[in-house]
Design brief:
Strands 9-8-7-10-11-15-12-13-14 form a nine-stranded mixed sheet, with helices on both faces. Strands 2-1-6-5 form a four-stranded antiparallel sheet, with no helix packed on it. Strands 3-4 form a two-stranded antiparallel ribbon. The protein is of the alpha/beta class. About 35% of the residues lie in helices and about 20% in strands. The longest helix is centred in the last third of the chain and has 22 residues. β3 and β4 form a beta hairpin. The chain folds into three domains: about 70 residues, Vcp-like ATPase, Chain A, domain 2 (Roll), CATH 3.10.330; about 230 residues, Rossmann fold; about 90 residues, no CATH class. α4 packs across α5. Pfam families: GCD14. It is an enzyme of class 2 (transferase). Keywords: Methyltransferase, S-adenosyl-L-methionine, Transferase, tRNA processing.
């Protein structure tokens, strides 16, 4: 038959050696992946798909996973493809790559982590956008993120994933050299470690590091936490994001001052140029560091403070006000239990009486706090498109009653100083665990 005639035949009549499902399966990139030594895999019981499964340690020949009812040797996993199954005496386990969410939740921990839903929400607040540099673009400083309070390394991984696309690709050989997945590997800085003494390899890797377009600096003042987080980061997907992160054991203020001094070659840090685009502080006394952090932030750079207590966020609000720092508070969000996120109104407000007295005007209104009323809060919520459910209405009524009591107390107060407002706004719902305050760096006056 002529080739043109064959081309005009219906596709159903064309000879096929493989069925469509097989063609699709073979064309899927994930199908080609074969697990090897050093991989961390997730084993799911086929008979109990909702069971969280088993997260393995890095695969190692001769190692064995011991369960109550069976033993699974690592050798039975090495060489298998993704979603293959391993039969045991009572069931079968499907082999999968763990998602970032599963990996962070299931890895062993020595500190309480920032859980994946919270980490994703925090990264979304930062609104990070990166892209690789164009080949003809002139050299420019990289985008730098500072995370203070490394802890478990969960947020570190989420931040590294957000900026990973900005950096040039690293060859597989260099990635293996500098991001070892050996569980017994020593805990020196992952961005500098190497299992080779080849000068050419070291030179190539250092050149790659200098060309990074984005980097996450993560600090913790406890070496044990840093060592643990480094392992967590470099074991995920064979160190996929390990070289996007620089680990440091240091105090936040000390580290920033050292960067300033290196930049200005010994001159005072107060006159140095900013170099950070995003800062995340997960510290018990974050207010002690906000002054120098504000110096290090680029204009419109974001500062996020994460604490378990609203009063700790309030301490930062007060310090920013006292020092007149160029930081504008965008919002304060409560990451509540289950699936609720609640926005909070946290600010310093002055009594109208005090402000009018300072301006030498008559007191037309007695000491009433200048604050947004609950009706305005509800209006704000409706502007955002949030419908007030029964819970929100009850919450609004309760807040209104408490505000009235607070206002009555302020009216009878003889203190004309600034007052701190800490109360939940109504409407928005979504997230988990603690409070996040987000500030943006403004232009210095």
């Amino acid at each position: 038959m002529h080739p043109l005639a064959l081309a005009r035949r219906p596709s159903a009549l064309l000879p096929r050696q493989l069925c469509r499902p097989c063609c699709r399966a073979l064309a899927t990139p994930a199908r080609s992946k074969v697990f090897a030594e050093g991989d961390v895999v997730l084993l799911r019981d086929k008979n109990r798909p909702r069971n969280p499964g088993i997260l393995t340690s890095p695969l190692k020949p001769g190692a064995v996973i011991t369960k109550q009812d069976c033993q699974i040797p690592h050798d039975a996993i090495i060489g298998r493809a993704v979603r293959d199954t391993i039969p045991t005496r009572k069931t079968e386990y499907r082999i999968q790559d763990p998602t970032l969410d599963e990996y962070v939740r299931m890895t062993p921990r020595i500190v309480t982590p920032i859980y994946p839903k919270d980490a994703s929400f925090i990264v979304s607040l930062f609104d990070i956008h990166v892209s690789p540099a164009a080949p003809s673009a002139p050299p420019s400083p990289p985008l730098e993120i500072l995370e203070a309070g490394t802890g478990h390394g969960g947020l570190t991984l989420h931040l590294a994933r957000a900026i990973h696309g900005a950096n040039p690709p690293l060859s597989a050989s260099l990635r293996v050299e500098h991001a070892s997945t050996d569980p017994d590997h020593s805990a020196e800085d992952v961005t500098y470690e190497s299992t080779t003494t080849d000068y050419a390899v070291e030179h190539t890797f250092e050149a790659w590091r200098r060309n990074r377009r984005a980097v996450v600096h993560t600090l913790d003042n406890k070496p044990r936490h840093t060592d643990h987080a480094r392992k967590i980061v470099r074991r995920f997907r064979r160190g996929m994001y390990a070289n996007d992160v620089d680990f440091h054991v240091d105090d936040v203020s000390s580290w920033i001052k050292a960067r300033f001094e290196a930049q200005k070659k010994g001159e005072t840090w107060r006159d140095a140029e900013p170099f950070l685009s995003y800062v995340f502080l997960d510290l018990p006394s974050a207010e002690n560091h906000v002054e120098i952090v504000s110096k290090a932030l680029h204009v419109d750079g974001a500062l996020a403070v994460f604490n378990p207590s609203i009063t700790q966020i309030a301490d930062v609000v007060q310090r920013v006000k006292e020092l007149k720092l160029p930081l504008a508070l965008d919002n304060v969000i409560e990451l509540k239990g289950s699936d609720t996120v609640r926005e909070w109104d946290v600010r310093v407000s002055q009594l109208k009486a005090a402000r009018r007295a300072a301006n030498s005007t008559s007191l037309g209104v007695e000491g009433i706090e200048e604050a947004v009323s609950i009706e305005e809060d509800v209006a704000q919520g409706s502007e955002k498109g949030a419908s007030l459910a029964k819970q929100a209405v009850e919450e609004a009524q309760d807040l209104k009653r408490r505000e009235r009591e607070q206002d009555e107390g302020l009216e009878s107060s003889e203190d004309d100083d600034w007052k701190l407002i800490c109360r939940p706004k109504t409407g928005l719902t979504m997230g988990v665990g603690g409070f996040v305050g987000l500030w943006r760096r403004t232009k210095s006056s």
